[in-house]
Specification:
The complex is a heterodimer of chains A (220) and B (360).
Chain A: E1 6-9, H1 13-37, H2 50-78, H3 93-106, H4 121-148, H5 152-157, H6 167-199, H7 203-209, E2 211-214
Antiparallel strand pairs in A: 1-2
Helix pairs in contact in A: 1-2, 2-4, 4-6
Chain B: H1 8-14, H2 19-32, H3 39-49, E1 54-59, H4 65-71, H5 76-85, E2 87-91, H6 99-112, E3 118-122, E4 125-126, E5 135-136, E6 139-140, H7 141-150, E7 154-158, H8 160-164, E8 177-178, H9 180-183, E9 189-192, H10 199-212, H11 225-228, H12 232-235, H13 239-244, H14 254-257, H15 276-279, H16 303-306, H17 326-359
Parallel strand pairs in B: 1-2, 1-3, 3-7, 7-9
Antiparallel strand pairs in B: 4-8, 5-6
The chains are: A mainly alpha (220), B alpha/beta (360).
The structure holds protoporphyrin IX containing FE (HEM) (2 copies) and iron/sulfur cluster (SF4) (2 copies).
One protoporphyrin IX containing FE sits between chains A (26, 29-30, 33-34, 36-37, 58-59, 62, 65-66, 137-138, 141-142, 144-145, 171, 174-175, 178, 181) and B (270, 313-314).
Chain lengths: 220, 360
């Protein structure tokens, strides 16, 4: 094993763009969504348009999330090998082995940190789950919105869900899934900070600048 | 009751309804059906010529609420017109004959006017155990419905129960209740869901038929678009308060006295399609939201299961007790996660320390 570190370009621009746009969009969606679900601001002025603005921001953010998901899906096929769709699923024996290693490390069973040039397998699966939750939020969000403004676009983006689930169940799950997203985000940030500190490969910096400092330990 | 004679208009005039009142009624119907300019004149012309259609009214698993709604037209002239549009040959709650005699008039209608009469069904039809949970004159509701609806020109399912089983079909649906659309297939059917359905919409449907010779256009759930095409929330007079963020937060609070939006009190106007804000109830006197109570979504599919709790926006998370709202559950989940991560962080620190000591 060498201690020499190679500066390697891992996260291409679309990956970093979608990551940080999503980060802000999730915050906006959560705050405005919570307001829509239980209006916590009590305006007194006659001129207020609080719910109107909240819904407007929520919807703009919702469309933004949709765009980001589309970009990221495209990049899962067009981007480099670290961004490829294969990294999100334990398809190869190597990946499954890696998954076991990472889990053992998180549970303190093993002392070997899950070095990886791209995502670790554990992270990959978590992102895949997150991605499915995003998709559900998009479909259910547009299903709810199709009641406000019916039309072909909203029908395609989510209106179809109303024929599978009743509207109140959609609203309920749209609300609850927000918390599931929070849980994954919390664990994700915790693990990112931790692994950055033990692996010292510039993991945290990588999601800003794209580069990691790779040693021979990564599986490349 | 009996055979129709003369046109609808003639019989109204004989009963002392003025031309003016008649035209008022035609305008109301034109507005209800959202007809273009000239609609009222067209309706008047049609009613001047049309014969009264024969109607039979079947009650199954019901509370007679739609009958009440039908008879509670508060303005006497309009009520008269409504009753006069139709020649009601059978209606258990209001008919004079009883027992065998009553059943005979139903059988005669089905036989003599096969394919020409209208049926209104009120109430759900139980299918479980051969339909024994609702019988009339010894016959199961399902048999009666098959025969009477099957030989009719058209069937109007009035109210939530006749539409999709409504309250009798609410979970756990002990009698296997269903609406007409699932009980009798292959008939001409129009649905007027609601608890109860508004008599204006029944009249509108009949008038549409008399004027245009066809039933009104319906949506994917078989409801006429003129009555179920618009969302309560979009026509609600409290809507400006909704957009502004002014909500009733407790019954009788300042917002409630000022007529603010009932969203937080569980109003289901945002998910319900019906013309209550425009047509209102009791001859346009008022409607629930105007009276200060949220919409309970009575025209929505399986409303007793899907629109409850009526006084809350969302149901609770099942299996976590009566206080487990989605927000409390979610906040608990997030807090548990954070706590787990803190414990993990402490364990990490302890582990690091012990391995450092080992290393010495
Ligand atoms: C394309 C994406 C999205 C769209 C179009 C969308 C749309 C909507 C709409 C229209 C509502 C209003 C529902 C109502 O009438 O009560 C709503 C509510 C809500 N949204 Fe979204 N949303 C999207 C994504 C998200 C995401 C990603 C989150 C969370 C991370 C979220 C959280 C919420 C919450 C908590 C509510 C309140 C639910 C309630 O109690 O009614 N939404 N959303
Ligand atoms: C302080 C906040 C955050 C930091 C420092 C951070 C850091 C990172 C890092 C370092 C990676 C690359 C990890 C790897 O090698 O596997 C990453 C990936 C990712 N993060 Fe975050 N993250 C943050 C917040 C969030 C939030 C709030 C979400 C979503 C709710 C999120 C979702 C993702 C996803 C989906 C990926 C995979 C990227 C891809 O392949 O497209 N992150 N993040
Ligand atoms: S009272 Fe109900 S229908 Fe009216 S604006 Fe408020 S939520 Fe919508
Ligand atoms: S306001 Fe709502 S609950 Fe009331 S009758 Fe109309 S649709 Fe039914």
């Amino acid at each position: 094993m060498t201690t020499e570190r190679k500066r390697t370009y891992i996260w291409e621009f679309p990956v970093r763009l979608t990551h940080w746009v999503n980060f802000f969009v999730i915050i906006f969606l959560s705050v405005t969504g919570l307001y829509i679900g239980g209006p916590f601001i009590h305006p007194t002025s006659d001129q207020s348009f609080t719910m109107g603005w909240m819904r407007f921001i929520h919807l703009v953010a919702g469309y933004t999330l949709l765009m980001m998901v589309i970009i990221r899906v495209y990049w899962a096929f067009a981007g480099n090998k670290y961004a490829n769709w294969r990294v999100f699923l334990p398809l190869t024996g190597r990946q499954r082995h890696d998954l076991g290693d990472a889990t053992k490390y998180y549970l303190f069973v093993s002392k070997k940190p899950p070095y990886a040039a791209g995502h670790t397998m554990c992270a990959g699966i978590a992102y895949f789950a997150l991605f499915l939750l995003f998709l559900f939020q998009i479909f259910s969000g547009f299903a709810l919105f199709s009641y406000n403004s019916p039309g072909l676009v909203h029908e395609i983006l989510g209106g179809w869900l109303t024929s599978l689930m009743n509207i109140q169940a959609i609203r309920f799950w749209h609300h609850l899934v927000m918390y599931f997203i929070w849980v994954i985000a919390l664990v994700h940030v915790y693990l990112a900070v931790w692994l950055d500190s033990v692996e010292g490969n510039g993991l945290m910096g990588s999601i800003f600048g794209g580069y990691k400092f790779i040693t021979g330990k990564e599986w490349e | 009751m009996g055979e129709a004679s003369g046109s609808i208009y003639d019989s109204l005039r004989k009963k002392g309804v003025s031309r003016r009142d008649f035209m008022k009624f035609c305008s109301l119907m034109a507005a209800t059906l959202a007809l273009p300019v000239g609609g009222a004149a067209k309706i008047a012309e049609a009613l001047e010529k049309a014969q009264k259609p024969t109607l039979v009214w079947l009650e199954f698993q019901d509370c007679a609420g739609n009958t009440e709604s039908f008879l509670r037209a508060s303005d006497p002239t309009v009520a008269q017109i409504v009753l006069d549009l139709l020649s009601v040959n059978y209606h258990e709650t209001i008919m004079a004959p009883a027992g065998k005699q009553a059943e005979k008039s139903l059988a005669d209608t089905v036989k003599n006017q096969k394919g020409k009469y209208l049926v209104v069904v009120e109430g759900a039809i139980p299918l479980k155990d051969g339909g024994v949970y609702c019988t009339v004159g010894g016959r199961a509701a399902i048999d009666i419905a098959r025969e009477v609806c099957g030989n009719a020109l058209a069937t109007i399912a009035m109210g939530a129960c006749a539409w999709d089983g409504g309250i009798p079909a609410a979970a756990p649906n002990p009698t296997g209740a269903v609406g007409v659309k699932d009980a009798v297939k292959g008939i001409t059917l129009i649905n007027l869901p609601g608890c109860p359905a508004n008599v204006v919409n029944l009249t509108g449907t009949v008038v549409h038929y008399l004027t245009f010779g066809s039933l009104p256009l319906t949506d994917s759930m078989g409801r006429p678009l003129f009555a179920y095409g618009r969302r309560i929330h979009d026509d609600c007079e409290r809507r400006a308060h909704y957009d502004a963020g002014r909500y009733v937060r407790e019954w009788g609070d300042e917002g409630h006295r000022k007529g603010w939006c009932l969203y937080q009190m569980g109003c289901k106007g945002p998910e319900t399609f019906k013309n209550c804000p425009a047509q209102r109830w009791n001859q346009g006197t008022s409607w629930p939201v105007e009276a200060g109570h949220g919409c309970i979504g009575c025209a929505s599919p399986h409303f007793w299961d899907t629109m409850t709790p009526f006084y809350k926006r969302l149901e609770n998370v099942p299996g976590f007790g009566v206080e487990a709202t989605a927000d409390k559950f979610g906040a608990g989940l997030a807090a548990a996660t954070a706590a787990g991560l803190i414990v993990h962080r402490i364990a990490r620190a302890a582990k690091k320390k012990s391995s450092e000591e080992e290393g010495k």
